[in-house]
Amino acid sequence: KKAGQLPTTELQDEGVDLHKILAFYRSRVEAHEKDRFFYEAKMEKLRVKQSEAHQIEWELKKRTEESIELQNALGSCQGALGQERGTIEEMKDGGEGLKVKQNVNKQKILELLENSNSVEQHVYYQKGENPEKIQQYYLGTKGPGIKGGTSSQAEAVKPRPAGVKSTLSY
């Protein structure tokens, strides 16, 4: 007897048909092999292929980088937009300040013209005639002034209407 075999008695071995036992176990092994191939094929279908996984990971990485890049660009655009809005507000405030200053300066000019002996000069051009120059000397309300006016062809004196401070316009 070989060392790997179990000791049996002849009585035990007589009632056993070895061919039936061998056929039974062969059929069991074949059924197991069929099941194993079936389930391996099924698992292979379910298993994610390495190339597909790599492609998906690469696309995810690209999308993530694009998202970060777009968020950074959006942030910088919003910052620039905020700066431009601030600049516009400053310019609006500056424009309003300049308008106020312009009105104050107009009032000062009108006041100075009223207080000084200002001269207003008009030149009229007519076809076929020499230009006509009319000068007006306004008397200030606070200082001495000169009345009258001169013209290159004719004397014209236009008194300053009451209530009109100046004909200065911008």
From TrEMBL:
Residues 144-170 are annotated as: Disordered. InterPro entries: CCDC77. PANTHER family: COILED-COIL DOMAIN-CONTAINING PROTEIN 77 (PTHR22091:SF1). This is Uncharacterized protein. It comes from Strombidium inclinatum.
